[in-house]
Amino acid sequence: MTARSLIGYCLFLGSSLISWKTKKQKTVAKSAAEAEYRAMSYTTSELEWLSYILHDLQVSVSLPITLHCDNKAAMHIAENPVFYERTKHIQIDFHYTQDKLIEGFLRTSHVSSQEQLADIMTKPLGEFQHNFLCSKLGLLDCPPLPA
Predict the structure, then answer these.
(1) Which pLDDT score is estimated for 54?
(2) What Å distances lie between residue 118 and 30, 66, 78, 111, 134, CA to CA?
(3) pLDDT of 1 strictly over 50
(4) pTM
């Protein structure tokens, strides 16, 4: 068993789910806020890459892109460019999200933990919560194929 957190994200183009991923973070986070902030950084990187692809396909992307997060402390770290003693342990490369907020590429939006779509990939959920998040993702229950 490991104490490393999982990163999970779901990316939508309009109302269509177009990309999703779960992966284990490379290092152990010292706090939930740090783990969430790192997840925001990874997601920001994926959003920027996807925006380049869409631009190449001549699909316009409205900026800023909204990045939903259920951790207010992580959002505060990202939104506030002032150095804090409590965040000195966070590696500089994870301040990528902060840079993209300042550039106007991103904006953050708080989402309740019950509405956090990525939780379906990173946490054990009860049946009701699992089904609720599946419906929000647009996943359909497909009937079994005939034998």
Answers:
(1) 94
(2) 21, 15, 19, 11, 10
(3) no
(4) 0.74
